[in-house]
Amino acid sequence: MRTVDPISGYSDTFVRFSFLIPWVVCITGGLLFFYEFIQLNIMNSLNLILMREFHLTAIEVGHISSMYFYANASLVWVAGLLLDRVSIKKLIIFSMVCCTAGTFVFGIASASWVLAVSRFVIGVGGAFCFLSAMRLASRWLPPSRLALATGLIVTMAMLGGMMAQTPATLLIHAFGWRDMMMMNTTLGIIITCLVFFIVRDYPASYHEVVSQQKSDLSDMGVLNGLKVVVGKGQNWLAAIYNAFLNLPIFLLGALWGSPYLQQVVHLAPAEAASICGLIFLGTTVGSPVCGFISDRLQRRKLPMLVGAVASMITILSILYVPNLSAVGLSILFFLLGFFTSTQIISYPVASENNPRMVTASAVSIVSMLNLFAGAFFQPIFGWVMDVNWHNTMLHGVRVYSATAYHNALLILPLVFVVSIVCALLIKETRCRHLYD
Questions:
Q1: Predicted local distance difference test score (pLDDT) of residue 155
Q2: Of the four, 41, 228, 318, 436, which is 20 to 30 A from 402 by CA?
Q3: Distances (CA, A) of 353 to 180, 235, 301, 362, 381
Q4: Measured between alpha carbons, how far is 253 from 165 in angstroms, rounded to an integer?
Q5: Which residues pair with 4 in a beta bridge?
Q6: Long-range contact pairs involving 321-328 (C-beta distance under 8 Å, separation at least 24)
Q7: Domains of the chain (ranges plus CATH)?
Q8: Apex CA 237: angle with CA 236 and CA 239, to 5°?
């Protein structure tokens, strides 16, 4: 006779592995973030191809790519409200359907406006990707594991970012970019099925807690809940820190890293993609390491400050150390991803500074500013590139000088200075929820 475990809500087949169930649920829910990060960063492998096929300029590519961020940033606060009130599983499935459909349309696009619309649809699904995984983690795991869980969730996203680099480039070379996007669509369908069969909103034993939280939220009201999270300065400090330390991913990993290495350093597309992938590998390694160190030290502020300062040193080395070899660039790109991964600590900071009933709404502030930063700075980067373009073309693609890339990349050290200031101003929570 089939029975159900009262702790997890799963059948007795899985009871013997009950200690793994919370992690399996959170990791499966995090597959949305993995898939979404493939779509976010796929433009880095497609950039020059799309410029040639659709006759695009740098700023036009920037606008198409940033449509993802416009949709995402506009809806992420709504995602926070919904995730505090509606089934997490249903929202993840809705998001996967949007992302998969948008990916399919992108792959069959015949005009640049279709590319932009499909990026917007993908961005709609992406509004839920990180927050849904964080909400699952807050329900399935104890607070002492939250930073580690955040690190693992971000690691999954970085693995997606890596998939969008060399593997995507090799598939494009072997099959063409449109067939690669169809394979990408198939992956989305598989992940949607996994989420449907595995993810649960919360353990069965957590039902009363969730019911009480929903009752409290109903009593508080939407506007009062927003006032609570918007009115906290610590939320905004964490959000600014997170947004600016994420910019290397959005500018180098997602869009301009591969063209920079091809046009300035004169690397082959596959080698350029491999080096860009090291940003994601660095973040893949750094996210759980930084989360573990923060939890172990019972400190949030110190790791955030060290990460921001180290990120500044690394980007200055990339910009100003002369005659860097491919090996040197590989090391520096890896370190840039590793040190900027301290941005993941800003999510526990936001969570610990707010009542539990508005956790998703608080974290959505961090995610929203992060995405608005991507939406704002990608076209700005392209604009700086076009301003410094000297009318050079090769095979129908604009060729930009080392000076153009250097001037655009100066964005990063400037925003890292702001991140250092934010880290200094953030209050230490000592890994404790201030409302417990």
A1: 84
A2: 41
A3: 43, 8, 13, 9, 34
A4: 8
A5: 11
A6: 324/265, 326/265, 326/267, 326/271, 326/275
A7: 25-197+205-425 (1.20.1250.20)
A8: 60
Within 13 Å and on the Cβ side, how many CA atoms surround 366?
26
By 3-state DSSP, what share of the chain in percent is helix, strand and coil, each rounded to 5? Answer: 80, 0, 20
Q: Which residues pair with 397 in a beta bridge?
A: 394
Measured distance between the N- and C-terminal CA atoms of the chain, rounded to whole angstroms: 41
pLDDT digits (tens, 9 = 90+) for 173-220: 999 999 999 999 999 999 999 999 999 988 877 666 666 666 666 656
The helix/strand/coil state of 9 is: coil
Choose among 93, 120, 32, 104: nearest CA to 375.
120
User: Please, are residues 9 and 73 in contact by the beta-carbon 8 Å criterion?
Assistant: no
Distance of alpha carbon 211 from alpha carbon 293, whole angstroms: 34
- Residue 312: Cβ within 10 Å count: 18
C-alpha–C-alpha distance, residues 98 and 106, integer Å: 12
Q: Which long-range contacts (CB under 8 A, 24 or more apart) does 46-54 make?
A: 46/172, 46/177, 47/255, 47/256, 47/258, 47/259, 48/258, 48/259, 48/262, 48/269, 48/397, 49/172, 49/177, 50/115, 51/396, 51/397, 51/398, 52/395, 52/396, 52/397, 54/111, 54/112, 54/115
- The SS3 assignment for 4 reads strand
Return d(Cα 357, Cα 205) in angstroms, integer. Answer: 17
DSSP 38-80: HHHHHHHHHHHHHHHHHT--HHHHHHHHHHHHHHHHHHHHHHH
Length of the chain: 436
Q: What is the DSSP letter of 428?
A: P
B/e letters for 91-116, b = 16+ CB within 10 Å, e = fewer, are bbbbbbebbbbbbbbbbebeebeebb
Which has the closest alpha carbon to 207: 3, 4, 28? 4
**Rg of the chain taking only CA atoms, in angstroms:** 21
| Residue labelled with tokens 């809705």 | 94
Task: Give the contacts of 234 (CB within 8 A, at least 6 positions apart).
Answer: 349, 350, 353, 426, 427
How far apart, in Å, are the Cα atoms of 253 and each of 37, 43, 47, 374, 378?
10, 9, 12, 12, 11
- The pLDDT value recorded for residue 43 is 92
Residues of the chain with pLDDT below 50 are 1-2, 6-7, 14
d(CA 424, CA 241): 10
